[in-house]
Each structure stands twice: as C-alpha cells, then as structure tokens.
Amino acid sequence: MKRFAALFAALDQTTSTKAKTAALAAYFADAPEADRLWCIALLSGRRPRRMITTTKLREWAAERAGIPLWLFEACYPVVGDLSETIALVLPEPTRETDLPLATWIARLRALDKAEEETRKSAILDAWDSLAPTERFVFNKLLTGGWRMGVSQKLMTRALAQATGIDEAELTHRLMGDWTPDTATWASLIEVPDPTADLSRPYPFYLAYQIDAEPETLGPVTDWLAERKWDGIRGQLILRGGEHWLWSRGEELITDRFPELAQLRDFLPPGTVMDGEVLAWDSAAATPLSFAQLQPRIGRKTVPKKLLTEAPVILMAYDLLEWGGTDWRARPLSERRAQLEAALADLPDDLPLRVSPRVAARDWPGLAKARAQSRDLGAEGLMLKRRAAPYLAGRKKGDWWKWKVDPLTINAVMIYAQAGSGRRATLYTDFTFAVWDGNQLVPFTKAYSGLTDAEFNEITRWVRKNTTDRFGPVRAVRPEHVFEIAFEGIQKSTRHKSGVALRFPRMARWRRDKPLAEANTLDDLKAMLARYG
Amino acid sequence: MVLEFTEAGIYCPAADIHIDPWRPVPRALITHGHSDHARPGHGAYLSTSGSAPVIRHRLGDIRLQTIEYGEERRIGGARISFHPAGHVPGSAQIRVEVGGEVWVVSGDYKTVDDGLSTPFEPVRCHTFISESTFGLPIYSWTPQDVLARELNTWWAETAASGRHAVLGVYALGKAQRILRLLDPSNGPILTHGAVEATTAVLRAQGLDLPETIQITPETDLKSLSGAMVLAPPSALGSAWMRRLGPVSTGFASGWMRLRGVRRRRAADRGFVVSDHADWDGLNSAIAATGAERVYVTHGYTAQFSRWLAEQGYQAGIVETEFGGESLDAEDSETEGATP
Q: Are residues A272 and A337 in the same domain?
C-alpha cells in the first residue's frame, strides 16, 4: 500500500500531465503485478463494490477519534470529502504494515459476508496500521468514490510508455468485461487472445464541439452530415451468435434493451455498429424525448408497460466490424456505404435504422438544416470527414459536433451552497428563481460556468449577504441575475416550478441586468410548450 | 464583568482600556503586531518590548509604551500583565485581574515551541478568551522536525532540477520560523520585499536568522540558481513571480492540511504549519488555564463552543473582527478560507 499511496501522493502533488504520466509509468514498471492490474482497474472505473455503509464508517471514525458524531458531521462539509475527513480525525497509527494494494482489496472483499463486529474490528485495525495518505487511499477503496485526478486516457498513455505497446491498441485491450480476478497482466496487456472475450468493444470515437465557423473545415463535399441525436451512445456487438450493447461509459447495458436481441436473426455474426439508442415513435418516425428514454436507462429489467410506452431503436451511424474483420482503418465513406447496404433490405419494424445523411450543397445550406434540429428532436448536426478512419477516444480534426445554441433564461440567485472536494471552501452550487408576480419561484440549480475569480467574488458576497441558513444551504439577498443556459426543458412534478432543465449552467453573470428584468415563470412555460 | 465586549472591541471598565480594539480608542493594550490586532488610530498603545519594533514599523509614529513578560502594572482598578502566547516573536496573552477575579485574553496563540517565539505559558484564570481559528479535530500540525525535513527535501529536489523553490508565507512570524528551519547548505535564500522588511526589524531586535537576499530589480537571478524564495502568499502567481523563471511553488499554512484547499491553490506543495494552535493545542491550552468559562472569538466558533460546553465549560461566542489565518491576504486580516 505504501507504493500505491506514494503514487497517489505524486499524482496529487502535481498539475503537470507530463509528471503524472511519468509517475504512473514508473508504477507500472515496478509495482507487483496484482497491484498494477488493480491500479488499471481502479483508474478505468472498475472499483470493488462498496462493502460498508458510510453511516457505519462515520460512527466508527468518530468513536475512534474520541469525538461526538455531531462534531464529525461538522467537519465533513469543511473538508468536503468523507474519506479525507475520516483520515484527518483519526489519531496517529500505532503500528506499521506494508501489505500490497491487492491484499488490502482482497481483505475488504472478504468482509462482504462477515458480521458487523468482524467488519468493524477489521476496519479499525486497518486504520490503526496505515499512515495518513495510505488511510485516505484505503478509505477511497472503502467508499468506492475513486478519483485520482487521472483520466483513463492519461493512464493508458502511461501504460503505453511503460510497456512500449501502441496507445490506441492498449485502449482497445483495456475495454470490455474484465476484472483483476479474470485477467492477468499477460492476458490483458501483453498477449491478449482476441477470441477470449467476444464481448470486447472497440474504443468509442468522440467528437469535439466545433470552435470555429464550419467554412474553415474546407469544401462541404469532404464532409458527411447527420443529425446529432439526443439519446445514449451505444456500440452493438454481434459475435458468435450472441449480442452485447455497450454504453459510452463502458457499461454493459444489453439487458436493458431486450428489443435489440432480435437483430441477431437478421445480421451476420461478426458485425459491430456504433449508434444512438433512442426512444422511438414509429408512427411519426421521430424520436421520443430524452425524458421518455430516461426510465429505461436506470432499469436492469424492463417491465412490459415500459417496453410499449418507450420502445427503443438503435440509430446506427457507423460500422466498426464486418464479417469478423476490424473495419476501423477504412474511410468513413466505405464503412458508411457498407452499413447502408447491410441494413437496406431489413424489415421496417426492426428496431434498427441508419441515421439519415443530411444533404446540402453548401455550408449555408447545412446551417439552415442545423437550425431545424430542435424541432426534429435532435441537438444539432454531426460533421464527419468522409476520408477519415474511426479513431479511438476524443480526437480533434475529423469528427465535429455542431450543436444548436443552448436555450437561455435570465434568473435570480436565491440560495447558495458550498461545493465539495476542490471547491469545498467556495460557494459554487446555486439555486435560481424566476418571477411569478412579485414572488421568486425556484426552478433550477447550477454549479458550473463561472471562472475561479467569479466564484471567489460571489463567495465573498454570499458570506456578507446571507439572510437565512438551512443546514449547509444559505438563503441570500436576491440581487444578482445570471443567464442560465440549458439544452432542453421538460415537465416535472417534482419541482415547484413545474419544469426541469437539462444541463443547466451559468452562461454569464448579468451584472448589467436589474433584478426586475429577470425572466418570469410565464416565459419558462412558453419554452416548455415549444420545446418540451 | 472584568472585561466587556463592545463595538470598539474587548474593554476593561476598571482600567478604562481596550485590548486589540478595531475602532480608534484612547488607550489600547496590544497582544501582537498582526494587522487585525494592532490597528492604527489609537491614542496610546501598550505592548511587550518584543512586539514593539514590528508595531512601530507597521503603524509609524504612535505613542507606544512597552512592558516585559510577567511584569505587573496597575491601571485604574485593574492589575495587568502580559504572558508569552507563542504565536510570533513578542506575542502575548493579556492577564487582567480585578478584585481577585482573573480573565485572560489569549490573542492568537500556539502551544508548539517554534524555536523562535517565547513559548506559550498557560496562565491560571477564571475566564479565558480564546481564538478557535483551527477549532475542529481535523486540524493537527506536522511536527517541527518532520516539517524541516519536508521543506529541505523539497528545496534540494527543486534546486537539483534547476529551479527555484517559492514558498508563500506570512511576512511576520511564519517567514522567520521557516527561515530557522531551512538548511542554508541547499543554496541561497531570497526574499520578497515585504518579507525582508519584517525580517530586518526582527533581526535588529536580536533574533538569530540566516542570511537572506532581497529580490530587487537589480538582482541577478541567473547567478543565484536553486534558491529558496520566501514571499507573501499573495505574491504567488502574480506578475512579480514571472521573472524568477521556472519554479516549484509551495504554501506554508494550517489550511494546507485540507486537500481541497491545496488543490484550489494549485501550488506544487503544501506544508502544514501554522502559528495558531491545532485542535489538541487549543484543548490542552484551555485545560491548563483551569478556567470555568471560555469565550471563543474567531474561527470555528459555533462548533468549538458547543464542544467546550459538552466538556463542562461555560462556553460562549464573542463576535470580533479578528481574522485568524488567511491565504488570501498578505497578513491575517481577512476572514479565513473556511465558508
């Protein structure tokens, strides 16, 4: 654990990507094999299941620290992180041990079936034998909230440095349904057997939002345009008579969308498609709103009623594997033509469509098509270079999102709450309201979009202008107007205002706007009627 | 009441005198030279002889008398004496006795011997007025010897990679304490003007501090490789730092105990060191006074006074304009980094 805690400290002490990569590469070169595998697993979101409730952890930590529980709870919002709060209040360890990371994880997992007393003594014993940073890391394993300020991409780059294996190839090898229990360093990293895991997906290619005028991309004829659909990105794999659906977050979601199983009967094994899972209105041949898809995402099993209310389709837009061969290096034009040919003669009622091409003679023509997106249930356009291969990860140059401008509304800040983690000492989480007569009605929260300097300024202001406190939430004097940008609006019974926004954030601090000029509840209702 | 809490600050009616007042008053007792305790505009000042040079340096031409630690003075109906607070060189707690009842105003204090300030001495009293800047059990300071090792290791590594190490520290107290911990064999020690000025004042009053070189527009930074640079926290990341070339940055503060604060400051290193008492320090200091009643003035006042009440003290909160320790100002004059 000392080696892993030292890695954590090294990553935590620097903001330099180069230094982080070097620290990780050094770890991959010399840490024990089982620890290296767990490190990769943790940094790619494969964490061990949470064994102990945080309520118990709080109680035990307070007890060991000799403080009442209320005092522990008073420390937590100041620190902003439970694992760290526990590590900070505990007394100095009385013993020293240095067991490998993998051993600690095995010990934790062994507690799964244990009685509470056994669990408690195991945890207290661990706290008592770990140094402060090791304790913090151990608590992170316990609570499952694992973030080390290292993206999967950076981790993969470090692994490439340590092993000399190509980064994109490694990205692919690390995908799929493995755990440190099922994999070895050799089988995962060094000499993977491609047939060992039929379900293994390809890394998704991710687009950037276009940051210049589209004319700068060159001739419009070099580009293929499609709608940017507002569903969930999915990769459908048909191999060996079975099928798997992977989400972009590398989660297997096959069972949530049982209607896709029938595609096995219509497409040959050795087919892999990239597309968007959409709730679909087949009569109108348009997508249902994201709100209607939402109940399907959270469920592992789907009741019949939901299947009829919100049936899904895969809106396919790319072909990654055909006839068992990896097609990613071929140009989009070729992949796309094969995709269209393969799907051309399928029955109309199959839950599978090809995302239509959006044709235009020139860029202004495409801009006009883009402007219609919201009315068609899309978020804008995707621009893809016809000659481009299918790359791994987020890469600039060949794929661009060209989203419609967000909806905006001017709202009054009425509540503020401190952030957590890095932002624990700043007021960053705000509640906004619109006018209903002379009342302010809260309708959304937002916590991003301002600069650090602006958060600092508003934090000072909040401290001086608090009118009431409800636990960690402060009511503040209505004075500041912010422009709230959002991607969509839905009806909601959970909110007093009757609406719920998608991806709300602060677009601008409208210092120029007097309080009275903030928008009204009627303005919101009009938006709901038009876009909801 | 031996002491009262007024708009202008803590007041002793028997002596008709204020302690560390924040509004101009005729006569003021001053615990130490930080700017939230020693303010301009009073008619007359009384401080320890150890604090006087810095107070004069900061406030200019004022009417200031001095007193030694432990020396008793009768003012009106009160007996007044100053006792070491261990916060910065010359800092004092002020003991006020009226008709046999004793109150002590701690000012700011720490219980750890920093090797520079006269160490904190508990003073028996009936009522103790305490700060609680770090009055939560999450605050516990790195032992001085470990801190010295961490600082010198960082400096040596930074110097070896051809960079300067820039450390954000308060000009009064923290800077000199750090100076005493540094190993000058690692390289030269450079200072920002604000740090140098206060250091010069303390040197002149006889404190033994290593040699420092103030950075001026004429300083040839290229010839001084691998230096340790001491600067006020506000100078880090400012235009002033640019001419230093490649650097590794660090902060030395009690707030560095929190990972969130370390990350928000985006410095390469955080060193956990404070001139205020940590949780154990506050509790042991209060216990040693034998006081029955404790008033808490600044910091985590609500939480700390509730804790003290549960421990059997008569505990109360007094609103003051003392700042505690802040990373956002050159001195400790604004509210702390806590929400």
A: yes
Q: Does B49 touch chain A (CB under 8 A)?
A: no
pLDDT digits (tens, 9 = 90+) for A150-196: 888 899 999 999 999 988 888 888 888 888 988 889 888 887 776 66
Residue A453, domain extent: 407-531
pLDDT value of residue B260: 84
Distance from the B212 Cα atom to the nearest Cα atom in chain A, whole angstroms? 28
Portions of chain B given CATH number 3.40.50.10710: 144-271
In a domain, A200, yes or no: no
The answer to whether the beta carbons of residues A263 and A351 sit under 8 Å apart is yes
Instruction: Report residue A375's pLDDT band, with 50, 70 and 90 as the boundaries.
Output: confident
Q: ipTM of this predicted complex?
A: 0.91
Q: Is B284's Cβ below 8 Å from some Cβ in A?
A: no
Confidence of residue A421 (pLDDT cuts 50, 70, 90): low
Q: Is the pLDDT of residue B334 over 70?
A: no
CATH class of B144-271: alpha beta
For A183-188, the CB contacts below 8 A with 24+ separation are A183/A37, A184/A33, A184/A37, A185/A33, A185/A36, A185/A37, A188/A37, A188/A40
3-state secondary structure of B132: strand
Q: Are residues A36 and A128 in the same domain?
A: yes
From the list B137, B257, B338, the residue facing A71 with the nearest CB is B137
CB nearest A85 (choices: B138, B300, B339): B138
> Residue A425 is nearest to which of B140, B300, B337, comparing CB atoms?
B337
The reply to whether residue B136 touches residue A75, judged by beta carbons under 8 angstroms, is yes
Which residues of A fall within a CB distance of 8 Å from B321? none
Distances from the Cα of B167 to the Cα of A411, B87, B223, B253, angstroms: 42, 20, 20, 10
Report the C-alpha gap between B194 and B179 in whole angstroms.
Answer: 15
B66 CA: distance to closest CA in chain A (Å): 38
Give backbone dihedrals phi and psi of B287, rounded to 5 degrees, phi first. -60, -40
Task: Flag whether A251 is in a domain.
Answer: yes
Question: Does any domain span residue A174?
Answer: no
Write down the pTM of the prediction: 0.76
Q: What is the CATH number of the domain that holds A242?
A: 3.30.470.30
Query: What pLDDT score does A424 carry?
Result: 67
Q: Within chain B, what is the greatest distance between any pair of CA atoms?
A: 65
The predicted-structure confidence for A70-116, as pLDDT tens digits, reads as follows 999 999 988 988 999 999 999 999 998 899 999 999 999 999 889 99
CATH topology of domain B4-138+275-317: Metallo-beta-lactamase; Chain A (3.60.15)
| Whether residues A391 and A418 fall in one domain | no
Chain B residues 300-329 with CB within 8 Å of chain A: 300, 303, 306-307, 310
